[in-house]
């Protein structure tokens, strides 16, 4: 399957080789620079390896630290948050409800800092999306937090299908803990996309098509204009 800069000629080669990965990333990063979309290419010191990187702030849901630790909210806060006209806060159930409402309100209004890395996996011959997330005060999100922020439209499908299960592991290039969308069935995801491109005899940027499909699962959206870069040529990413 010919991809970036060439016409589709079949779907027999579903694996992505590293040269094609880098070529697709070059086009992607160049278009990002034109849009001021925040993507860059990062070289790993002392090697010829690299990866795409982007950092963004997005609205998110994060439970208060005390809720994660099982601690109760301060009494003054509960009184202020739980008071309703005509209600008696002496009822324990109503106090608990008031606390739950406050926690829900804080979850929906907490910005989250996401850092995304797109790497090439030699084992799977496919791109892999690594990411980490934290609150504005620097607290890293747990796996439970990450799942809480997966859109409900994706969550049920994720739980039913193993190809894009979110796990945590060491970043293979920088040696730090990251979350990752497991790539074991990337070929199954890309097969109908590549088949459609081949049937229409049109060029395809593998990274654009793949990232547009998996990114929204973890709050990463790809602007529609990226769909037009399939036939572009470019220099090495900066």
Give a summary of the structure in a few sentences:
By secondary structure, the protein is α+β, with helices and mostly antiparallel strands.
Explain what this protein looks like in three dimensions.
With 238 residues, the chain is an alpha+beta fold. It is 37% helix and 20% strand. It is built from 8 helices and 6 strands; from the N terminus they run H-E-E-H-H-H-E-E-H-H-E-E-H-H. It has a 6-stranded antiparallel sheet. 28% of the residues are buried. The C terminus is likely disordered.
Outline the fold blueprint.
Blueprint lengths: L17 H18 L4 E4 L6 E11 L4 H5 L5 H8 L9 H17 L1 E12 L4 E10 L7 H7 L2 H9 L5 E5 L6 E5 L4 H14 L6 H9 L24
- Which sequence of strands runs across the widest sheet? 1-2-3-4-6-5
Number of helices: 8
> Pairing-aware structural class of the strands and helices?
alpha+beta
Gyration radius (Cα, Å) is: 22 Å
What is the assembly state of the chains in this entry?
Answer: single chain
Major sheet details: 6 strands, antiparallel
Which range best describes the helical content: under 10%, 10-25%, 25-40%, 40-55%, 55-70% or over 70%? 25-40%
H/E topology pattern? HEEHHHEEHHEEHH
Low-confidence stretches: 4-12, 70-86, 231-238
Q: What is the residue-averaged pLDDT?
A: 78
Distance between the termini: 27 Å
Shape: globular
How big a fraction of the residues is strand?
15-25%
Total number of beta strands: 6
């Amino acid at each position: 399957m010919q991809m970036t800069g060439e016409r589709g000629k079949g779907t027999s080669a579903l694996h992505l080789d590293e040269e094609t990965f880098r070529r697709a990333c070059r086009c992607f990063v160049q278009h990002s620079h034109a849009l001021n979309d925040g993507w860059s290419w990062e070289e790993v010191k002392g090697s010829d390896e690299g990866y795409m990187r982007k950092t963004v702030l997005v609205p998110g849901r994060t439970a208060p630290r005390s809720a994660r630790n099982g601690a109760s909210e301060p009494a003054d806060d509960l009184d202020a948050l739980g008071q309703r006209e005509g209600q008696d806060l002496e009822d324990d159930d109503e106090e608990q409800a008031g606390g739950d409402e406050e926690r829900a309100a804080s979850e929906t209004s907490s910005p989250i800092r996401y850092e995304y890395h797109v790497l090439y996996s030699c084992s799977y011959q496919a791109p892999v999306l690594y990411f980490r997330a934290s609150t504005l005060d620097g607290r890293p999100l747990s796996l439970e937090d990450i799942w809480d922020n997966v859109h409900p439209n994706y969550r049920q499908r994720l739980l039913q299908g193993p190809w894009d299960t979110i796990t945590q592991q060491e970043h293979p290039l920088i040696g730090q803990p990251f979350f990752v969308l497991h790539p074991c069935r990337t070929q199954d995801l890309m097969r109908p996309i590549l088949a459609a491109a081949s049937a229409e005899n049109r060029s395809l940027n593998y990274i654009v098509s793949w990232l547009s499909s998996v990114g929204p699962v973890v709050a990463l959206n790809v602007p529609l204009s990226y769909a037009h870069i399939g036939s572009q040529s470019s220099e090495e990413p900066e």
